[in-house]
Amino acid sequence: MGVEIVVNDLSKSFGKQLIWGDVSLTIPAGEICVMLGPSGTGKSVFLKTLIGLLKPDKGSILIEGTDIASCSERDLYEIRKLFGVLFQDGAMFGSMNLYDNVAFPLREHTKKSESEVRAIVMEKMDLVGLLGAEDKLPGEISGGMRKRAGLARALVLDPEIVLFDEPDSGLDPVRTAFLNQLIIDLNAQIDATFLIVTHDVNTARTVPDNIGLLYHRHLAMFGPREQLLSSEEPVVRQFLNAQRVGPIGMSEEKDADELASEEGQELPPLPPIPLQQEPSNGIPRRSQRPPGEWCKEHGITPPPGSFETSNAGLAPGA
Predict the structure, then answer these.
(1) Residue 157: closest CA among 105, 209, 192, 217
(2) Which residues of 184-210 are buried (b: 16+ CB within 10 A; e: fewer)?
(3) Which residues pair with 248 in a beta bridge?
(4) pLDDT band at residue 162, thresholds of 50, 70 and 90?
(5) Residue 43: pLDDT above 50?
(6) pLDDT tens across 113-150, in order?
């Protein structure tokens, strides 16, 4: 089962440039979370900080009682064993075939025999649909296959936390849909804590249990999927529904003249909230909540047409 990540008052700067400040959120154990935000808002920096590759200026990141923002290198090394990471481009070693790429963490961090390594590698290759491709080099396969190979490598140490840095980057919509289904199925199977950084609004609307939005150097909102998809908060509404009207502009923030020109414009209605994507076997994940449960608990009337099968997986406005 996955583990909880508790982030308190986290801030990160590069020189005088504040990337984001005072970020606080709790990533629940075993759930799928998505972190969104316009380009340049520090989403990948947030992932690197969570795993200890970057040190925050202030704040804490508690994982199983250890604050990885201030712990020793030895303790950090141990905590990192809980993580698996899928990097944007797969981060494969170009001179190694897929088998050796996936086997690398096992050979580096364990004392398992080669027969044990082979059994684990083949299991993970099968899990991501790459059996039969283990002898291929990364340069000989498609971007989607490299993503899946990177995911197999992220899973070989049976992590309790899996981080995905823009897994849909460079993929066409069909491959993105297949990868999203794979993520759902993996979470159902291994029950680890998943955090996905993405720009893909359709992924955010259909895959996660929780959504976060980084904007203008702070965390605009973090909470259950239904909360954000029914939110009237201007930046959340604009981003999650891919609308032009709102505070986000081409250069992140619109200036006063742009915002003034939009005054009085009628916002389009919120699109229906789609059904959350389910595992292929149809059995709900442990963290999956019944459709509309959050809205009902909080007295929120969802947009008309929400949670209907015909809306599942549709892009905003479809």
Answers:
(1) 105
(2) bbbbbebbbbbbbbbebbbbbbbbbbb
(3) 253
(4) very high
(5) yes
(6) 999 999 999 999 998 889 999 999 999 988 888 888 99
Please give the Cα distance from 223 to 218 (Å, whole number).
Answer: 15
Tell me the one-letter amino acid at 120: I
- Distance from first CA to last CA of the chain, Å, rounded? 36
Q: Is 30 left (phi over 0), alpha (psi -120 to 50) or beta?
A: left
- pTM, rounded to two decimals: 0.89
State how far the Cα of 147 lies from the Cα of 136, in Å rounded to an integer: 14
Helix H or strand E segment including 261:
helix 256-261
Question: For the chain, give me the number of helices (H) and strands (E)?
Answer: 11, 12
Residues 6+ apart with CB under 8 A from 14: none
Sole residue written with tokens 């604050």: 67
- pLDDT at position 317 is 42
DSSP state of 313: T
User: Using the 8-state DSSP alphabet, how is residue 152 labeled?
Assistant: H
Q: Which amino acid is at 33?
A: C
* Residue pair 31/4 in contact by the 8 Å Cβ criterion: no
13 confidence band (pLDDT: 50, 70, 90): very high
**What b/e string do you get for 37-70 counting C-beta neighbours within 10 Å, with b at 16 or more?**
bbeebbbebbbbbbbbebebeebbbebeebebbe
Q: Both tokens of residue 280?
A: 């292929």
Provide the 3-class DSSP secondary structure of residue 150.
Answer: helix
43: left (phi over 0), alpha (psi -120 to 50) or beta: alpha
Q: In angstroms, what is the C-alpha Rg of the chain?
A: 20
For residue 272, count CB atoms less than 10 angstroms from its CB and return exposed for 0-12, middle for 13-18, buried for 19 or more: buried
3-state secondary structure of 6: strand
Domains of the chain: 5-82+159-261 (3.40.50.300)
Percentage above 90 pLDDT, the chain? 66
pLDDT at residue 316, as a whole number: 46
